[in-house]
Structure formats: C-alpha cells, structure tokens
Records
---
Amino acid sequence: MKTEMLAMILAGGRGTRLMELTEKAAKPAVHFGGKYRIIDFPLSNCANSKIKYVGVLTQYESIVLNSYVSQSSFWGLDGRDKGTFVLNPREKVTGFSLYMGTADAIYQNIDFMDQYEPKYVLILSGDHIYKMDYDHMLDFHKQNNADLTIAGLTVTLEEASRFGIMNTNKDYSIYEFEEKPPVPKNNLASMGIYIFNYDVLKKALIEDAPRKDSAHDFGKNIIPNLLNEGKRLFAYPFAGYWKDVGTIDSLWQAHMDLLAQGDPLKLDDDNWKIYTEDIPTTPQFIGPNACLKGSSINQGCIIDGTVTNSVLFRDVVIEKGAEIINSVIMPESIVKKGAKVKNCIVKEKQLILENEVIGSDDKVELFTSREVK
Amino acid sequence: MRDILGIVNFENEKVRVEGLSNFRSIPAISFLGRYRVVDFVLSNMANSGIDHMKVLIRDKPRSLIEHIGIGSHYNINSKSGSLQILYSNRNITNKLYFTDVNLLNQHSSYIKNSNQDYVVIAPSYMICKINYQDVVEQHIKTGADVTAVYKQIDDGHKRFIGCEEFDIINNRVTVIKDSHGSTSVKNISLETYVMHKDFLLDLIDEASHQSAAYSIASFLANNDNIKYINIQGYKYEGYLACINSLEEYYQTNIDLINYEKAKEIFSHDWPVYTKTNDSPPAHYTQRAEVKNCMVANGCVVQGKIENCILGRAVKIKKGAVVKNSVILPNAIIGEDAVVENAVIDKGAKIIVNKEIIGSKEQIAYVRRGDTI
C-alpha cells in the first residue's frame, strides 16, 4: 500500500453561488462541458499523472458525489494497486465533527493518509476546471528541495484580491503569502493545488488543530505558519486554461470559452483525456429542420431546431422550430416546439414548454423551475 | 427469469460486406456511428437477463476481441457472469468445413459444463430488438425441440436476399430454404434458435457424424432431419435488418438516420451497449450545415453534411460537402472535398478538393486508412 504521492481532493463545498444547481449535489458534481462533471478534471488529471490512490473529501449534499466518486473505473483508477476513496466526516472515539475548514478536513484523515506511508501529499480542490500534470509539479518540488509547492496562476491585478497571492523571489521561492489581499503586491495566485512533504504537512496539521484562533484553513493558517517557521515554499507557475466556475455567470462563461476559443482545454487530446461516466444512451440524431452553428452536442440528443453557440448535454431534446442561443442545456432536458432559450443555463431534466421564451439579452439566467415528469 | 446461455454465432460464408470485411469480421464492423454490429445481439442478450455469453469467432479476431473484451460494458456481472470467446484450436483451411457445428464440437465441454439449461444461438448481423426470455418461454410451452425466430416481411423481392426463409404449417417450420427474392411476402429466419442444452449437444454430435460440412442451419434444413426435429416458429414483429452485403450495410445505416425508424431499436428501457472511449461531445463550427444526420462524439464538423452517419472522431473540414454517406471512425474529409453515396472506411483521408461520388446502385467505397 506504500505510495510515493497520495492525492486528497477537497470536494465538500456547496458552491452557494451556483444557486439551485447545487441544491442536491455539491459543486464538484455540477455538470460541465457537455458531458463531464467538474470533479472529472482533477480526477482525470490524477489518473493521467499516474497517481494511484485518491482520497475525496465530501461533506455537503454528498449522495450524488459519493456514489459517483466511488466508481473508480470511470477514470481508470481501479485495479489492485489503485483506488478512489470517499472520505465523509465520520464519528470517532473523540466524537463527531464536521470538517471545519480545508486543513481540518485533511487533519481528520491523517489516519487514512498514514496507511499509504506517502512521501508527498497532493492536495487539490474538487471544483476547478483545468488540465495539469501533477508529476511535473512533483519534479519541480523535488528539484527545489521544497517543503511545500503551490501551483500558481498569473491573474490580472484586479482579480488578484480574490485569491491567495504569492509574493516570490526570482527562483519562485515564496517569501510572503497573502490570502485575498485588498491591495495585492503581485498577481501570482494560488490555485489551491499543494504538494506537501507529508512529514511537514502532518506536523503542521497536528499543531494547528487545537488552536482556538485558527480557521483551520490552508491559505489563512497553515501556509503563513510554515513561512514563519522558515520552511521552503515554492510557487509552481502554471500556464494554460484554468477556471473556477463558482457562479452561474462564470459557469456560463466557461462554456462560452469552450465554444469561442476552439477547445482551450484540449478535450480532444488523446494523450490527456478527461474521463467520465459512460452512460449508455442512444446516438445523436439531427433532424431535417435542424440548424447547428458553433455548438457542442453530446450523445443521445435529438435535435430538429436551431442551436447556436450552445452546449447540449446527454439526451437533450430540441424540437422543431425551437431556438437555443448562447445557452447551456444540462442532461435530459426537453425544449418543446417553437420555444426560445437565450443566455440561459437550463438545469438537468427541465421542461421548456411550447413557444415558451426564457432568458434575456443582458444577463445570464438559470432555469430550474419545471422538472420533466 | 430463466438463466439462459447466449451464443453469438459467426456469419456463414454467404455473408460478406464487400470491402469492410476484408479488414475485420462482420461483428466488428462499425455501425451507426458509435456502435459495432455485434453490440446489438450482445445488448439483446444482456437486456434479456443473460449473464453468460459465448462468442464464436471464425477469423480476423483482433478487432472483435479488442471491442468486446471481457464484456463489462455489456453489463455482464464481473464476478458471476462471463463472456467467453470461442475460436478454433484446429487449423481448418477449407472454409466449407469451418462451421459452427465444428467449432462447438471442439468446445462442447464448455457447453456441457455450463449451469444453464437453455441455449439461445443468434448471429450478429441480424439487427433487431428481441427479448430472448419470451422465446424461451414459448419454447418450453410448446415442447419443441428447437424454436426458430422469424419475421414475416413484405419486401422480400429486394431485401434479405441470401437469408433463409421458412415454410410454416400450424406454427411448425416444415421447410427451410434460401431466399432468392422471387416473392415479396415471406418468413425470413433470424437464424436465431432456442433449444435445450442437451438437445444442442446431441445435435452437434450427430451433425458432425453425418457430415463435416454441416452447420446448425444446414443440418436443420436437411429434408430428412426437419421431418423428425420439431422446429416451432417464434414470430418476431419488431425492426429487422440483415447486414449481409455492402448494399444492405449502407442502406440499413441510412434508413436508421430517420429517428422515427430508429426508435424501433433504440429506447431507454432497452439500451444498446458499446465500448466508448471518452471522446468529447461532437462540435459544430459556425460554418457547419447539418441535416438528417447521426453523429458520434469526437466529431468536428466544419462543412456541410446531409443524410450521413459519422463515426467517432470524424473530421469534416471547411467547404466539404458530404451527402448520403457512411463515414467510419477517425476518417477525415478534407477541405472542399465532395463525398456522395459512399462508405468511407476507418481512418481514411479524403484530401482537399477530391470528389468521391457513388450512386444508390453502386456505392463508392474507400478502404481503411487510405489517402485519396
């Protein structure tokens, strides 16, 4: 069971700003890109980076996510020396406690991590969209003889105050880490992707746990503490598409990016596939009255209407004369004849009635109000 | 629900999809974009609650084995179920003697030792949606030796040529003969048989003693045998197509682009399983024009397609016009190329400006991996 680098994915957050989309499923389970769920990205990255064991920490509305993540074969993470493991908060001798912060969640699973005697632990967020080779990041970590390496993304200075910002020397060693600074000094943002030497991580978590004044958060507590202790922290610069789809607007925008930028995530790359659940469905039927422009459409869709600049998930039906513009339609939704959908995200299994018009020109709307019976 | 052993039979020597079957056996041929021919019979078995399947292979096994693997994508239980591939251990060079009887005889201990009492034998190239449990129930009720599935058709003068047809009196099959297209209304055999396991073992034993050239079908069709073997007909009413030539392969693909027609074999309560490969959704660019098509994932369409089937990861480049054609996975239709009434095999490349134009009578075919 010994492994060099164990991955732990933080997937417990609700994603409140995704509104009704996360009513019954946590944010990492939200549908993305016409066929995936958000957590497919970090899980596929793990599989492609040849990581063998992946713990997934879940908490908020976890039925969908737990049953999904436990199917390790979806990502090729099944096998004798591999696996995905669902880590829900659990009752212990000391009592029951929810995960009270990112660091607390990992702290509560030290016993899980100990089983694998890892030299390094990779901590990831379950709700970001990107492709990354964590093995390259580990090489960087080893070359620098680092205690902690944090993946960093260059953002605009305006955006910088929404992130943990890393102030670094020329060799990417970090001398200061500021969580959401009002006046950022730099624009290298933490992506919430950490490689820790396990001994350093374990010690830091055990020391942090009893502190009453701690939020038990990596960005606010663990990282600044390690810096103060003089540990070797490095930023691993990342270049590529990365998106935190935390709001309806950003989820919609990420889908429009997919269409407009010509596959910025390289979903078509056979050497770094994003794996997902394989749901048996029918082929995709395009009817005699269809008109498709600038759109991505998944298996099982039956389309006889007009679809422009939109992403359609599995088993969506667009009837004759219906018009879909700049929208995202999630699995098994039905748009009846003559209906018009513009600038919308339609949740899964929704019914848009004949000639119904939803959405507007100037803002993105979420449609969740009528389930298919 | 009864525990049934499913056997997928290989094609007889009359079945040949010109061009395509030079590279793989019929069951492994790409069909309707995202499927292989064999997916339909295996899904019928899986949906009928069959958890033990054997697939008989005559030649060119690579492509088929690669596709069906251990069968987990057909919903076979990974512990209690099994999918076994049966191939010949003897070097049979004469096709005449390479029959299903011969092959089953070589592996008869595997049939004998199976826990199932009843066996269904079905070929891959009869595309249909059938619940084998119903056939077995009728078989038990009638006390037949063999129950043979048929469909009464009315277009026999142009379809199902080379298949077998039945004469039926009081539900008993009295004559089995080749269908030549002389009449329209006839009972076409689905070459699907249900029998008790012991009856099958006796049949292959006796058939191989009588003649080394017997297949199950030809043994049953023999005038002397059919007199004493009680073969009852099971009337199938659903969709049926037979992929036994390039023309039928092409026409079946094109027919099923029509969603109303396709609904007869595709429904959410009777899924057709296949092996998938995690390709992204199909993408249509701003210049795409698409009417009446069935498109698999991984495709990128920049040109115009009409009445087409696109296999996985097909690329239709800018300005290309593709009509009434079946494009197999990974093929590329280059810029401004024109393709009509054609079957373009896997991975073929049609270069810039090239025209490939066939007709309904003479389908154009471009070989696997060719660049034209």
---
Amino acid sequence: MRKNSTLEALLKEHHKDAFLWSLQCCGYNHDDASDVLQMVYLKIVEGKATFKEQSSFKTWLFSVIRFTAIDYIKKQPPFNSLELIQIAEEPIVYKEETNYKKMLLQLPERQQQILLLAFYHHMTLKAIAETTGLHIGTVRTHYERGKMALRKLIQTVAI
Amino acid sequence: MKQEDNDIKEFFERLQETDRLEAEIPSFNLPEAPPKPKRSVLRYLLPLGVAASLLLFFGIDWGPHNTSIEDETLVITMTIEESNTTDDFLSDETSISSWKSPSDILIQEFED
C-alpha cells in the first residue's frame, strides 16, 4: 500500500514532464500523447512495467513512455478514412512556436529525441542512453550531429 | 554541455517557453488497476479429475495384493562347462561303410 502511494507521488511529481515527453514522442499530437500517457500509467498500475531502481525514476518513466509511444504509433492506421476526416479551420498558433517545432521536426527522429532529452529535459548522455536503449557512443554521435544540423537551421532562420 | 552550445540552449529555452504557454497538460489521473479475476474451484479440481481418470484408465490396482512373483525368490542358475577334448566333433553315428548287420556274428562263427 505504501509502495503504491510512493509510486503515485512520484508519477504526480513527473506528470508534466512525462506529458511533454509523450507529446514530443507523438509528433506534438495532443490526443495521442494523452492516450500514450494513460497507457503508460495503466502499465505501471497493472505491474506490467516495474521500476527496478536501476536508473533514476525519470529515466525509467521516459523510457516506458518512449517505447509505448513507438508501439502506439505503429498500431495507428497509416491513413484515416474520409468519413473520419473533419474539415476544420486552421487553429490559430503563434508563428514563433510553429517555427521552433517545425525546425525541430526537420531533424531525423533520433536526433530530435536526443536533443530534446539533453536540452529540454536536462538529461545526461548516460541517462539518454538508458532511456533510448542505445549505446552511449551512438547517443554521442547523434547528439553531435543533431546539434550541427540544428545550428545550421537556426542560422538559416536568422539570415 | 559546452559553452558554444548557447544557441542550442536558447533554442530549447524558447521551445520550453512556448510549450509552457500553449501545451494543455491534462490533469493527473491515475487509472484504477482492474480487479484480478477470481480463480474458481473448478480450475483446481479439473486437473485433479483428469489425473484421477488417467490413473484409473491405466489400471492402477488399489485392491488387496495377490501372491505375486515379487513375494517369491526365483533363482535361475546357468552353468556352462567347457571341455578341452575334441569329442564334441566326433560323431557317434554309424556310417553306411562301417555298418555291420546284426547277424554278422553268425558268419564269423561259420568261418571258424
């Protein structure tokens, strides 16, 4: 009982970061991110995903979110049927926000995620390797390449 | 992180700022764990029943024991004696060339 309440407190503490990471893993789709996070919480509550204290709680939680999002996206049909498509007006978005997300989305997925984990979620490269299940050397390579690619994009926009 | 990463840091700080303003974070809602399905008594009795049926089918005799071979001691001793003679190779059977008629003795007496 006490273990469950501790777990609940930890999940509550990391809820905001967990949702943002879920959002980033789902290509900024709000509904998908909510579904993925609920699936993650259910996995934890049912005991299908257990925290074995081999890494920090945040690293473990982010890893579960990432793999759940990958499975969730794989199960999604590649195209929506015409009946399901709703023609709606373009949502009003801040120009600046669109640019940042669009710029980031131009990078390969792995570079996006590694840079997000490093600079947005302030993780170390070792923690990133644990979250992504990649070798530390691979993480370092994508980290450096991602930075170079993003820097080029930033410079292009600045010009 | 290196000093020259300031431009990258600044980029992500602005992204965080836009997310803070724009992203609608749903309220924390931990789902209830579904109740574990109760295991019925049948689940335990069924294998026992199958096992009992198999035992009966293969004729396990649970009745009083009759006299069986296990109660007696049966000793079988086999001895093979080896002989060093060649007698086994000599045939005692009479061949046609060495055959003598039973009345041969009479002929011998006549000659005398």
---
Amino acid sequence: MCLAVPMKLVEMNGPLGVVELGGLRREVGLDLLADVRVGDYLIVHAGYAIEKLDEAEALKTLQLFRDLAGEDEPQP
Amino acid sequence: MRYLEEFRGAGEAQAVLGQIRGALRGRRVRIMEVCGGHTMALWRYGLPGLLQESVDLLSGPGCPVCVTPNAYLDRAVALARHPGTIVVTFGDLMRVPGSSSTLLAERARGGDIRPVYSPRDALDVARAHPERTAVFLGIGFETTAPTVAAALISAREAGLANFRMLSALKTMPQALRALAGAGEVRLDGLILPGHVTAVTGAAPFHFLAEEFRIPCVVSGFEPLDLLQSLWMLARQVSEGRAEVEIQYLRAARPQGNPRAREVLDRVFCSTAAQWRGMGAIPGSGLALREEWSGFAAEAIPVEVEAEREHPGCRCGDVIRGAVRPEECSLFAGPCRPESPAGACMVSEEGACAAHYRYRHHS
Ligand code: SF4
C-alpha cells in the first residue's frame, strides 16, 4: 500500500497531470507539490505525486554503486 | 533512465554485501525494517537469506493494513450492510478479516463495496451516486494521509455532500516511540520508511537516535537501496554512532515535503489511535479537524459487533517484532495467503505474507 514509484510527468492540466512508466499512463494529482514541470520524475502514491525525484541525487547514488563494484561504464 | 532497474544490479549488490560484512567484522546485528514496503522488498530479493550471518532482520509496525484493528474493520463491515451506503476502499483491505466477516464476504452478500487505487476515485463514486453516501476507508501513514486530505479538499470544493471518510490514518514517530520505550525488543538499528519521511522529513525521527541511541537510516525500496542502508547502519554500529541518516536522498529530503504537510494539517489534527498489538498510542492517529467533521463517517448510525481477536493469531506480536511469523502455530498451516487468519497474512506488505511467499528463497 505504501508502494510509490517514480513516473515521468508527460502532461499537465492544472492540478491534474498524466504520468508514464513503461508505456503505462496514469492520471496523477499534483496538489501536494509546489512546483513541477513536464519531464520531471514524480514519486506517485495512491494517485497523487508525493515528491519530485531528485535526478542529481539518484545519479550520485548510482555512481557510488558503480565505484564499489569497480565498474567504469554505466550499465545498459 | 527509469530510476528502478538501475537499483537492482547483482554485481553492485555483491559489492555492498561485502562492505556490510567488512564493517561488522563478524558481529551480528538485529535490525528492524519499519515499513511494510521494505519487508516485501527485502524478502522478494532474498536479502534476509544473503545476510543471515551478519544481520537479523525483524519487521515492524509499518504495514497499514496489519496495524488496523478489528474494530475498524467491523465498522466498515457494518457500513457495508447499511442501506444507502457505498464503501470505497484501497483494495488491500478487502480480504482482511474483521471479528466475523470481511469486506469481500460482504460484497458477495450484496454489499456495495468498491476497491479503488486512489482516494480521488472515491470522489468519482460519490459523484456518480448522489442519492447514496460514499464512505472512503482512510487507512495509511503520513505517505497516504496527504492524498486523503487532498481528496477531502476537492470534495469540499466540489460541494460533494454525500462523501464521508472513516479515518484510521496513523503517524509513525509515536508508534516507534512506544516501541522503543517498551524495550521489549533490543534493536541495533532501524530502517526508517522512505515515503513517510519524504513527507515528514527526518526531524520527527531524531529522538530515536538522541534519546534511545538507536542508529537509523531512511531507505529507498530497491534492493541496492536496502543494502546500502544496511551498510550505513553497520557503519554506525561499528563506529558507535547513533544518527538519523538518509540513504534515499533522491526522494526523501531532510525537510520532507512542506506542501504535503500543509495539506494534511489543513484537514487533520492528531489524536490517540488504536494499533493492533500495541493498543492506544497517544498522538499517533489523524482525526478530521472540527471544520471538517461534516465528512466524518463515524456519524452514520450503524451497529458494530463486539470486537473479537482471532484465536491463535499472533499478528499483534509480529507487528511489534516480538515474534517471527514462523513462531505462530498457524503459519503456513491453516494460515496461508489464500486462507488468511490474520491481517499480516493478507496484506502484500505483511510480515507473515512476505515470509510465506518467499520462504524457500533464502
Ligand atoms: S501466520 Fe497468520 S495467524 Fe499467525 S500471526 Fe501471521 S497472520 Fe496471524
């Protein structure tokens, strides 16, 4: 129930948006976020975006894993 | 980039596992994962088995369906039997046994019960049936509560007079205070819920480190997230630190989501709440504010049966981390996902369900 996954915002219409993940599209309430733009990755839970995904932080975390595993190239 | 699969690499997982073992230097630690989403992810990816020698993992009170007491389900059942009422609920609640019935059984008997994905869908149900009252079953923690609040605000703006909400919404910090204060289970560390913290921020959890000296890490939900969180906890333990660190920085900021909290605070105020297995915990629930009390489903006059526990079910003890699912005599015998005796076996995120489903994994 607490599941919430990052989905890309592809359309915005006032307090409602459309997010997409792997071809699946869903309506999302944007009431809980202060400033969002099309192209943002949103953490979507129970039909509402509860946070915006910080891509710079995500990439930092991934880089740490790569360094640990001794890989130079990002995985495909 | 989808920010999902990238956090599931096997090579990276091996590397982090090595780091955890290295940091612990042969020591074995007991860690509680609070959130049901974490329980599910840990078991699904077989991490308890991989970590067996260094980490003893316990599930905590963070599965919303599991901690909802029978009395709430009994009221939902009574509402489903009440003429003129439509019960709208997250699908997870459908099969949870109340004292003598389930919502699924009530639907088979003709009750109008509609599982939905979002509280917003409940508004559509109310709109489509103006002659009846749509009651939304509001369960969940700080992640879900703002979504319910947003739906209530929309209901008021739309002038939906036939929309009601039955609240069993709960807040996590007070439950963790009760758990830590009871001292029933000794913990070397806590994996804190990532999406709760995305809303609340880290500050409400600081007392765990400061007062109780328990190392804490706010974690994401992918296997590499959880492994990194365990590594961060292992380092705190080996260095003798107790802090609240955030592994899941891509979604959970130290300050949380102030806008979501504002929406929540507009509609709800804190109140005492009943938890399965933990009793009444002061300040751990969310009730509608006075100005919103017109939406309270408690005002609908229904007769609710007397609450009864399921004989033999140890869900309450499982929720506190006091016993493991395997220690319940009904586990995997009479109690299975297809014939659950208790809530912890029903919910995807329940400890009993996770242990059952992935028991041959580890
Ligand atoms: S195995 Fe079933 S009966 Fe036992 S505690 Fe879990 S849910 Fe309850």
---
Amino acid sequence: MTPEIGAGAIRDFRDTFSAVRREVGRVVIGHERAVEAILTAFFAGGHVLIEGVPGIGKTLMVRSLAEALSLSFSRVQFTVDLMPADVTGTRVIEEGSDGRRRHVFVPGPVFAHVLLADEINRATPKTQSALLEAMAEQQVTVAGTTHPLPSPFFVLATLNPIEMEGTYQLPEAQLDRFLFKVRLAYPSQAELERILAATTVADVAAIAPVLEPETAAARVLELRRLVREVVVPPHVERHAATIVRLTSPAHAADDAVTRWVAHGASPRGGQALVLGAKVRALLDGRPNATPEDVDAVAHASLAHRLVLRFAAEADGADPERIVDGALTAARRART
Amino acid sequence: MPGSTSSALDPIPLQLRRVRRRWNTREMVRAGLALAAASAFLGALLVLAALATAPRRFAAAATLLAVAWLASAIGIGVALRRRWFRATTAHHRIDYHARLGGRLAAIVELGAARHDFAFRPLLAAENAAMRPLWTAERLVPRRVPAGALAAALAAGVALAAAAALGPVLAPPPPAAVIVRDTRANRVPLRRGASERLPRGGVVAETQGVTEDAPEAEDSFLGGVADAVQQRVQRELWGEAEAIRAQELARAEEEEPSPDPRRERPPDGQAGVPGDESGGRVEPGNESREPDAGATEVAQGGTPEPGESEPTAGTQRGAGTADGAARGAGTGTSPDLYGAPSGGIHRAAAPFTLGLTADVHASGGNSRPPTGDTPLQMPDANPALAERPEEAVAVPRAPVPPEYVAIVRRLFEREP
C-alpha cells in the first residue's frame, strides 16, 4: 500500500465513520459518546452490550445504525419463554411442488447484519447461550447442519438495570464475548427537551443511508480490514497488556483491585483494547495506535469483564473506578 | 523495509541523537541553575538568620535551611533524572513533545521488525514529512532555560540584598564589651587588646579569666552553625562588631542563675571575678575586688578625645550618685559602664532615676539576713569621699552586656 493509498483509505474510513455518526445523531439525540463507542466496536468487529433504562432510545439507536449502514436489521425481544430456535431458526417440514416433503431450515432473526437482542437477561441461559454462540462463531448449527451468519454480523444486546426480578444474569464467560459495554445515561434537561421537540412532530427525521445497499456489507468488511492494518508498536501492546494484568488481583497495583476483584479481565479484554485503539487511531488520521488510544477505550473494554467479589457489591464499588486505578498504574509504569 | 522508506528513515537516528544531546545539555544547565538559585536563596535566608537571630535559634534555622537545601538538591536531581532523554526512550519523549501522534515511536520501534505491514510506507512518509517538526533547534530553542536563569538571578539578587542589609541588622549602638577568652567558638581577638567599634564603643579582651561561661553547642551541627554565624557576622559587620553581637546575644540568652552559690559566695568571700555576668549584685558587695574584665575594658579602651574621655566630675559623680558606700570606687574604673556620652552627657539636665523592684516574701514575713557580714575593704581613694560633689545623673548609661538582663528587668515597670 503506497502512502497515497494508505492516506486515502484512512480518509475514507474517517469520512464514513463521521457520516454514520452524523446520521445516527440526527434521530438519536444526545448519547454522542455512546454512539461513537458503538460505531467503534462495530468497525472493530465486535459486539456491544448496552445498559440503560427503558425508553432512552436503545432500539432507535440500533435501528438508525443499521439504516445508515444500509445493513439488514432484526430485533428479538428476549423473554423467559423464548427458545433457542426462536433466535437461531429451526427446521420445518415443507411440501414441495412435486408433493415430496422435506426438512427446510427457516432462519431465525439472528440471520441479519445487525441484531438487536433486547433485554437479553430476560431469556433463559439456554437461549442466551444460543445467541452468544452465534456471536462467537458467527454461525449456527441446527440439526447437525451449520449455517453461517451474514457478514458483517453485529449484535447489540441491551440490559435493563431495573426490574431485575425474573431475569437471568449473563455469566461472566458470556459477558466476555462483548467487545464493549456501553452505559446509556439518562438524558440531560436540554437533551430531553430536544427529544420531545423532535419526536412529537409530523415530520420525524429519517436516516439517509451512508453506504450503497448493494455494496454496504462489502464496504464494511473492507473498513474492518483496514482497522486490522493499523500499526500497533510494541510499547502500545505492552501498555495494553499491562492494563489487563493490573485488573487481576494477582498483579494489582491498586488496593481496590485486590479488595473487590475476584478475577481480572481476560486476554479478550486486551484484544478489545487493541482493536478499539486501532479504530481510534484511524479516526485521528493516524496509521499507528498510541497508548492514549488504548486508554480511551479501556473503560468500555474492561469494566464488564471484571468479576467482582461480594465485598464490591456491598461497598457499591464501581468497576469503572477499578479500571481507572489500573490505567493510572499503567501510565505510571510507562513513564 | 522497502528501499524508499529506508532512505526516508535514514536521517532519523542522527536527528534523534542531536535532539537528545541538546535536550540533555539544557536539562543539565537547568538543574545547575536551579541548584544555584536554591543555594543562593537559602544562603540569603542563612545570612539574615545569622545576623538577626541568637546563636541557638540560628542553629535551628541553619539546620532547617540545610535540610531545605538537601531536599532541593534531591528534588532537582530527581527532576533531572525524570527529564533526561535516555537513548532507549528518547523517541517516545520526542514524539510526545513534538506531538507526532506516536508516529516516530512507532517507526523507530518497528524499524527493526522483519515483518512488513500495509501502513509502513505511509508511516515512513509521514515521519519523513514530520522531521522538521522535531529538529533539535525547534524542540530546544535555547540551551539556557529562561525560567531557571531568572530564578538564579533573582536568588543572587536576594543574596546580595541580604549581604547589603547586614549593617542595618547590627545591634543597637554599643557599649563596652567584655570578652571572655574562655568562651568557646568565638571569633579570635588578640588577648588583652581592644578594638573600637564602627559606631562607638570598645571591645576588649580579658586575659586569663576563668569564668564558668556557658558551654558551647555540644553537637557537631551546633558547632558548625555557631562557626557559620560567626563567620557571617565577621564578614558583614567586622570582627569587633561580630564579637559584640555574640556577647550581647549570649547575655540575653543567659538567665540569672538561681544557684544560691552564685548569690552568696562561700566563706564570706567576695564574688569570684567575673561573677557579674551572673546578674546579681548583693548589697555590700560593691566594694569588693573589682572585676578583672572590667578593668581590662577600662584600660584597653581607647575612647575618642572629647567624646569618650570622661570628665573628673563625671567620674566622681558616678561614684556618688548611686549611693554607693565610701569604698565603692576602690579599684573601679570610671568607664565601668562604658564610654560616657560626651556632649550629650554634659548638656543634659540632671534627673533622678527611680528604681523600684517588687519584693515578695515567700512566707509572708521577712527573714533575717544570713551569712557573714561582708568585709569592709580599705578605701583606696579617700580623696573622692572627702569632697563630694553634687550628684550628676547619667542621662544615658551604657550597660555592659552582662547586666543587660538585670537592667531590663528593673526598668520593666514605671517607678
């Protein structure tokens, strides 16, 4: 890749990213940082877990993203009686024109580029596992037949932090499969006023697709490949690895970690750091990642991967504070 | 690495070395200036403390200043170490200071990597384009940091000002000072000699006085502090003034001894010469053997004609005005209380100096005097008693340092 081509590719990535962010921002008022984090995870090739109270625009955000990217979108409302087949699809007996009956696979809602798994913690662990397996393998197996999922495949799962009765908390191993966890904060007064003004009029803003529908998937994959090409120097890798290790009680430099954390972030957390840093580097117009890029995505990458002790819950400890301590210690070690 | 990118990156190591050398030179200069500034500033404080505080307080102040200097030196060293560009990390530091976005660090670290990557040509091209942003002259425009230089100059000015303020901080106009040669850690003065002070008064050295002077500072630090203070005072005030200041300071520090042995010498004898420094004079003891030191002052002083030369009347008046006994003047120098004030003395109207002292009996009743009656010494100069003259009050009596504490206590209250 010549310098000119490389610079052009980076510019194209930035333009696409900015255009999608701008389009989503037309209908999703506020949550700018959340939208940026979701787009970062999308282009890094990961999935996102969104935590937020009902009615603050989670579904709208995901739908807008899919529309802006011209990708297929489906939504599954997870309930306690939802079965795995309701997510992955199932085989049905279909009678052909010749009168012969045969088993035909009917794809479930998981067969879409962008899937919104709404309130994923309301489904049983069995159903959750079906989805999470699809996320990890990017394929589903039904009756011994493996069906690849469309690419790109992007899952946005939501968690409702209230109404916890009758829910099944996601196991840590399954939480680990989400590249980022994003918290949607309650809108501010000004944002709320803008939401009320924009959503109660006759002409609600519509999303204009940024990518051509025919080539959208290929373009997204191309941009994801570009992200992987970003240079990560050894000192940046070292910094990311240090942060991940510092979240573990065995290597902690912070008392909070030893007191509150039972298990630190996994190597997947390190991968999330580096991939997120690469996207940040491209957004900054650089072909190389820096430790600052890593720091910028540390909270979204690591906070949900920490397995906290009971003492942490009793003390009301915030995982983001623990990540803060690890970041501070890693910066100190770097200088 | 492709040939084109290799040629673009060739000058980078050389430029890194140049930047590193220039940066480190500046940091060394900065550290030196900072150390000089700290030393000069603390030195100014030390000079002021040496001139304005008593020896014991100066010892504490000097210790504090020494600790502060040590802390400053350590801090400067730590800062130098932190800011130093090491060969292994210079590219990171340059990258940070020149805001290169990690490009220089990336290309330097990946320069030796065998595997190629798609963005390498772009990274190399960007580094080549950004080289002018981190030249040695651009990153380190001046070898001498202006802030550190200004601080050093300011501290130097402060030190010079402190030295210039030295004479202002000299103690009030002096009296004659008796210097005990048994005093430790004192500025040496020739034995038996005297020296005129710049603003009047005389410093004289006594010989062979075995006064139980207070011990000098026992600790090493105390001794060093004492020596430093003496040195500073001698440099800024002159030798004689320094001696006088030390004696004054010591006299003020020494409280009258509550030891009854000092109040009343054993065996009914007169006080040991030099006991006057203890601050007590008992009735009846006025006619005892005069203090050798006082005699030395009288003989060694070289008062100016017309100014410090006492008149005969004054001498006699001084002997009678205080109501002393007949033998009070025996062997006593007319300049016991220092050089008289000359014209002012003669022109001033006589006045009565009332002295009162609060006396408290511990048991509510007075106690009879104890001990032997003091010996009556023969009058060595009866002529003084034969023709008493009108008492002339001394308008301003210089007080020897040994009596300063007593006189101050006496004059604390209105009569």
